[in-house]
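Researcher: Here's the sequence for the chain we discussed earlier.
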Amino acid sequence: MENVNELYSQILKLAETIPQPLKFLAVYILFKLFTTFVKKAVNGGAAKKNEAHKAAVKEVANKEEFDKYVADAAAADQVLVADFTATWCGPCQRIAPLYADMSLAFGDTVFLKVDTDKAQDVSKHCDIKCMPTFQFYKVMRCRLTR
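Model: Thanks. This is the structure I predict for it:
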């Protein structure tokens, strides 16, 4: 654990030296390297890719399916994140691996992927104008007391 803390502090020092326009990209790359190092350390040197990685993000085909996911998340008192994407969208494809990693990191949150070309009814219902668009859903329950 001491090596991990030392590596993390070195990454933070390195991030401070990066020019501002490149800082976001550089910090992202350093974060990915750090998480890869930690995964290898935890898994005994072998970072495992499995089917859970794919299963963590659920693909939505139509509005009925989308409404069911929203209702299920509300009933379970969970946060739902919807990624509106397209196969032809470059930024969408570049952020997809990070989105998938986040779905594994935040297992108590429901992560959806909505292809705007295939599920146009969902895109229209959610008023999607550009991609990638991320929408967060959380049903807040209030109890009135007297």
